[in-house]
């Protein structure tokens, strides 16, 4: 009987140690900013003088000349994530350069890596990333944006469901 009690005590102690380890690993770093979730139908968030604009759409919605110019495959089962950062300057929003990274996950917590690339046009700077999507799939994008000359990134979460049929 004593052996069973010791075994149960040992299992309980191990469980508590594992549980404590899991809890501590999920704590955000004290110096890390909080991730902000955009609301339903919300596509922009302002941080002081900066605004981060986010949208995603299936690539078949792009005009063929745009897709061709940026080597984007047009398809109902591929999406493009578009991120634009603007800064308020003299009462006007001006696009600015930034470091932009993103990862997507679906509702089953499967990760989809996104390689973001910078596009610079005459009066525009934006960051795009492509990935495949299934019909009815909901993706949750974690987007980290760090404008040039800013010390801490802006952390956003953006959620969207895609219909490919």
Distance between the termini: 64 Å
Number of helices: 2
Low-confidence spans: 1-27
Helix content: 10-25%
Q: What name does the CATH topology carry?
A: Immunoglobulin-like
The CATH superfamily label reads Domain of unknown function DUF4426
Q: What class, by secondary structure content? A: alpha+beta
Q: How many runs of DSSP E, i.e. beta strands?
A: 11
- Percent of residues in beta strands? 35-45%
Question: What do these coordinates show?
Answer:
The protein is built from 2 helices and 11 strands, in the order αβββαββββββββ. The protein is α+β, with helices and mostly antiparallel strands. The chain has one domain: Sandwich (Immunoglobulin-like). Strands 2, 3, 4, 5, 8 and 9 form a 6-stranded antiparallel beta sheet that branches. A 5-stranded mixed beta sheet has the order 1-11-10-6-7, with no helix packed on it. The longest helix is centred in the N-terminal third of the chain and has 24 residues. It starts with a helix and ends with a strand. The N terminus is likely disordered.
């Amino acid at each position: 009987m004593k052996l069973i009690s010791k075994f149960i005590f040992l299992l309980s102690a191990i469980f508590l140690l594992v549980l404590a380890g899991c809890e501590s690993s999920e704590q955000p770093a004290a110096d890390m900013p909080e991730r902000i979730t955009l609301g339903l139908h919300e596509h922009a968030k302002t941080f002081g003088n900066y605004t981060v604009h986010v949208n995603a759409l299936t690539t078949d919605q792009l005009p063929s000349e745009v897709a061709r110019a940026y080597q984007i495959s047009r398809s109902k089962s591929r999406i493009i994530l578009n991120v634009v950062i603007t800064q308020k300057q003299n009462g006007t929003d001006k696009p600015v350069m930034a470091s932009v990274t993103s990862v997507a996950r679906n509702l089953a917590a499967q990760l989809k890596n996104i390689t973001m690339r910078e596009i610079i046009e005459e009066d525009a700077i934006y960051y795009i990333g492509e990935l495949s999507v299934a019909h009815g799939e909901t993706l949750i994008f974690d987007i980290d944006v760090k404008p040039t000359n800013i010390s801490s990134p802006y952390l956003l979460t953006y959620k969207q469901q895609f219909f490919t049929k």
